[in-house]
Specification:
Layout: H1 2-25, H2 31-42, H3 46-57, H4 64-74, H5 80-86, H6 89-105, E1 111-113, E2 125-126, H7 133-160, H8 171-188, E3 192-199, H9 202-209, H10 211-228, E4 234-239, E5 242-248, H11 252-267, E6 271-272, E7 279-281, E8 285-291, H12 298-314, E9 320-322, H13 323-336
Parallel strand pairs: 8-9
Antiparallel strand pairs: 1-2, 3-5, 3-8, 4-5, 6-7
Length: about 325
């Protein structure tokens, strides 16, 4: 058929363009890279096209890691199977019965719109000359069940992105929100910074006062960080006793200033063990600060923040170090060598 031939011809052209760009950029010819760049030439997603155009116009490194991050953002969808399994058999039966009743009663033509349920996928509004109370009751009952399910799904989503101990964002939520913040920074030309915050000598607290005291310190630090940030800033538990703070529209020097405020606030705390009423005393944190370079893979910014945090630890702890301090340290070491 002409339409199929036209489609095949277009696909071959797009494939050749995609492979040529992969070769030009020095990327591996992986399915992920091919999918991202094929969609770019196909222009199936305007936001993806804009993101890639920004990256290329800024002359930033465009490597496999960057392609992987674009793939995660634009291609990976929530697992539909999880949502399908969450739908109860009883609810689906109710919906089928209601629709079947509409058909039998000849009232299907009176459906004028769709009510919000299951994220605006399913619902129905009925208009009839002769009110059918029984039918409307069944519809209301089904809608109620759908609304409850939607609330349950929202709750599940919230729990999946929340750290159980502290109530703030978890690592999964951090990764998602950092990608979103980076894309917003590229689209708006804004600066974005991040902090990695780690409790000093945390193992000693656990060993001396017990794990419940350690959990108390983690909750205390999470609360301190949450109260220290504002607006669009995002605090997340990065792992163990380590926390991350995403700072949209924030320069490196401003992020460093916030980090110093956090460090001083934590240092001023006197901590008493809740379960043993023992004095834990002073706790301190070390902080690494990095700023996003528009278009770079996010893993590189995280690595700089992590290296700056390590520099703060190795320099005596209870310190704030930035990627600039990291560069100065490397330069000093190279000069000595």
């Amino acid at each position: 058929m002409p339409q199929q031939r036209e489609y095949r011809q277009k696909s071959r052209v797009l494939s050749r363009q995609t492979l040529a760009l992969i070769d030009q950029l020095g990327l591996s010819a992986s399915p992920v890279n091919f999918s991202v760049l094929y969609a770019y030439f196909e222009k199936s997603d305007e936001s993806l096209v804009t993101a890639i155009d920004i990256l290329r116009s800024n002359k930033r490194d465009f490597d496999d890691l960057q392609c992987h991050e674009l793939y995660q953002r634009y291609f990976q969808q929530p697992r539909k199977q999880e949502i399908i399994e969450t739908l109860s058999t009883d609810l689906r039966n109710q919906i089928d019965q209601v629709l079947d009743q509409f058909s039998k009663d000849g009232t299907l033509a009176h459906l004028a719109g769709v009510k919000n349920a299951l994220n605006a996928v399913l619902s129905t509004t009925i208009y009839q000359d002769d009110a059918d109370d029984h039918l409307e009751d069944r519809l209301d009952e089904a809608s109620s069940e759908v609304s409850k399910l939607r609330d349950d799904l929202e709750k599940m989503k919230h729990e999946a992105l929340t750290d159980g101990l502290t109530g703030i964002a978890n690592r999964k939520a951090f990764d998602e929100r950092l990608r979103n913040a980076a894309m917003a920074a590229m689209e708006n030309g804004q600066e974005m910074s991040m902090l990695l915050v780690d409790v000093d000598f945390f193992k000693k607290i656990n060993d001396r006062f017990g794990h419940q005291a350690g959990d108390q310190v983690i909750r205390l630090l999470a609360n301190t960080l949450t109260q220290s940030v504002k607006g669009r800033d995002i605090t997340a538990r990065y792992g163990g006793e380590e926390f991350a703070v995403i700072l949209p529209d924030t320069k490196l020097e401003d992020a460093e200033s916030l980090a110093e405020n956090i460090r001083h606030t934590v240092e001023a705390l006197d901590v008493i063990s809740e379960n043993r009423s023992e004095v834990i005393g002073k706790i301190t944190v070390s902080v690494g600060v990095a700023c996003y370079q528009l278009g770079e893979p996010l893993a590189r910014m995280i690595e700089r923040a992590d290296q700056a945090l390590y520099l703060a630890k190795s320099s005596g702890r209870n310190l704030v170090m930035t990627e600039n301090d990291l560069l100065a340290s490397f330069t000093k070491s190279a000069a000595k060598a």
